[in-house]
Amino acid sequence: MPHLSTGDLLRAAVAAGTPLGVEADGFMRRGQLVPDALVLRILRERLEKADARRGFLLDGYPRTLAQAEELDRITTVDLVAWFEVPSEALVARLAGRRLCPTCQRVYNVTTKPPHEAGRCDDDHSVLVQRPDDRPEAVAERLRVYARDTAPLLEHYRSRGLLQMVDASGSPSAVAEKFGQLLGRATRD
Questions:
Q1: Residue ranges, CATH 3.40.50.300, the chain
Q2: Which of 6, 156, 163, 174 is nearest to 81 (CA)?
Q3: Per-residue pLDDT of the chain (188 residues; tens, 9 = 90+)
Q4: Which fold has domain 1-78?
Q5: This prediction's pTM
Q6: How many whole angstroms from its chain centre is CA 20?
Q7: Which long-range contacts link 106-114 to residues 24+ away (Cβ below 8 Å)?
């Protein structure tokens, strides 16, 4: 089952040089968000591939009610997993995230620290904090979430598709809970 995130879909389309990828690349190079309609066309194109015919996992999409309604026009949604984490825990997790600017490896100063503080295990580059992981940026992302994304809960709950996953534990514990949920879903 392919695991598809919006960022990965866009990067793959750009790397492949598809007409849709070239169009998306123009927006990204200008520092603009790729319009929903274009993201949906790229997603539709990807879902037509053979490996997605038996099922797929969308990661971080849809993020708005309008995106969910458009998604419903191109495919059937069978299950929506919602990862519940207290806001304070999200801020702490994201504020602790560090990235190697060279190899793109991701660390967390609390849950997945590098062997040498502040340095990548692979190439010893100095780790950086992404601007959108700073506490004030995370707080803004949570405000946007409450405004734009939270309405999806009722949209999918009312259709009987929403399954909550307690994501306040360790990454391995959350992965186990999610795996159990997927296992139940594929058996039904």
A1: 1-78
A2: 163
A3: 888 988 889 989 999 999 999 999 998 888 788 999 999 999 999 999 999 988 899 998 998 999 999 999 999 999 999 999 988 888 888 889 999 999 999 999 988 999 999 999 999 999 999 888 888 888 888 888 889 889 999 999 999 999 999 998 888 899 999 999 988 776 65
A4: Rossmann fold (3.40.50)
A5: 0.77
A6: 20
A7: 111/170, 111/171, 112/171
